[in-house]
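Fig. S4 source data, part A: sequence.
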Amino acid sequence: MNKIKCICIVKGFAKGEALISNTPINFLTMIDAENGEIKDLNHYLYGKTLKDKIFVFPYSVGSSVGAYVLYSLKKKSAGPLAVVCSNKMDITTASGCAISNIPAVYLKHRNIIDALKNSQALVVDGEREQILIYPN
């Protein structure tokens, strides 16, 4: 198990499988607000869902309404267990996680995302500002 430091934006604890996007996400246009599925046909994670995953991605782009997509997903039990921004924590992601009570952290070092794999077991611990990475 590896441990990496992170900076907490929304406190909380989550354990689950990673879903990793190496490209920014627009929650409003790329994510289905009903079921959390990535609906952008051009995205390499097309058809995958955020539901019950630890979603790792650089940052969000697009409309601030994306925060309400995260809120809608949480209310419908279709949202991520936690969010990890690998580049920067943007206001849309931070506010969406805050109103939805989804743990949210960002990485101090951007190159750490390269060590992560989809479906890898992660623990996000906002209180201790750390992410535990379990080997596959």
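Fig. S4 source data, part B ends here. The chain has one domain: 11-126.
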